[in-house]
Amino acid sequence: MPAADPKFLKYVDEHEDAFIARLKAAVEIPSVSGNLEYAKDVERMADWLVGQLTDLGVKAEKRGIGKHTLDGKEVDLPPVVIGSIGNDPAKKTVLVYGHYDVQPALKEDGWDYEPFTLTPDPKTGRLYGRGSTDDKGPVMGWLNVLEAHKDLGLEMPVNLKMIFEGMEESGSVNLDKFIESEKDKFFAGLDCMCISDNYWLDTKTPCLTYGLRGVNYYEIKVSGPDRDLHSGVFGGTIHEPMTDLILLMSKLVSPTGEILIPGVKELIAPVTQDEQEKFEKIHFQMSDIQGAVGGDQTLTDDTIKTLMGRMRNPSLSLHGIEGAFSAPGSKTVIPCSVKGKFSIRTTPNLGVENTTELVLKYINDEFKKLGSKNRCEVSLGHGGEPWVTDPNHYNFRAAHKATVAVYGQEPDYTREGGSIPVTLDFANILGLNILLLPVGRGDDGAHSTNEKIDKSNYINGTKLLGSYLYELAAEKKD
């Protein structure tokens, strides 16, 4: 029997139009965090959120988190918006996170609609607009839950704390410092946490996410002469940097995706029985990934191996070469210095530090074998640790029951191939079990043109978030 108050669920159905209007108002504020031109709009979005939360009975405020350089100017970072409602010591206290900033978007990028105008498609029920699914739709879902309880005079089933940031799309600068500074203040007394900033694996099956791969981004710089040279004059007389670089990059990963750096394979955590069973239950077909990539280029036709390759095993990808001639035409140049870029998506046991040690040693050793007179420098551009949590925690049990109650089906348990660095910051600093509870579908097109959220996902997502809080209140702590 669902734990959610039926009056709450009925209210959501009856106020569908008002909830869509709320999302429309949010989408119309172009809160692009990575462009100084939109700085006032980002601030306006924060003010709008504080106003909404305050009207809904939340004690809310903006908090500054420092400065950064944007478009060559030092400016204030977008503020975080924090809020709390309820302080009953007999209730669990849950922290929810979302972000109110969005990626850039212009109509001429290929949008069918104005990106900062929420545009419903009456035939499909899709709601198009920048931020509709990433992440304003889920944030509005939390506001919708609060509105329903306020208007119905219902007490919230848990104590709720909220943090909404305005810098997620630009690296969440200084958020970790804010979390650390408020660890024993605003963030004191928390039992668990929920983040809704990811998506279903497909378009049909809800999921709960309990892991994220990390990412280490590397550069190999090979330098030789002090200027670019003519291949007709100097070809065959010198060690060419591009030749050295391509040889080095060819030694990083095989055509079948095997990472060739010694020691990496040995660090991969073995698959547990519980994990194997969760992967076997995921609703996934090879056609799902083939449709997503626009062809049949998968390394294997085995669904479990494909899922593990995407979610729980490390991968190495080559991204490009800087300094090489790439313009149209035929230019017979020998570049004097080139930089190769690659990344490793890391998993538990493969952290930033130990993986980087293996990478640096291997590439430097391989370069020595070339006998080249060029110079080679390898560096880590940035690194983010992998994250995995206990999917059997009462936090996940509550979300599982809520999903069944709202959607009538059990959720898949997934791990994301990408990274959400703030998850690790919250987990490490606050020591919480964190649930990733997606609202949108796998085809929503976050960061892309024609980003959308299906109306059914937005409305049912509101029910899901609210039902999760009721189920969380009913769960016994482990």
UniProtKB/TrEMBL annotation:
Transmembrane segments: none
Residues engaged in binding Mn(2+) 1: 134, 169, 447
CC cofactor: Mn(2+)
UniProt keyword annotation of Zinc present: no
GO molecular function: carboxypeptidase activity; metal ion binding; metallodipeptidase activity
Tagged with keyword Manganese: yes
Domain of life: Eukaryota
CDD domains: M20_dipept_like_CNDP
Cofactor, how bound (note): Binds 2 manganese ions per subunit.
Name assigned to this protein: Putative glutamate carboxypeptidase protein
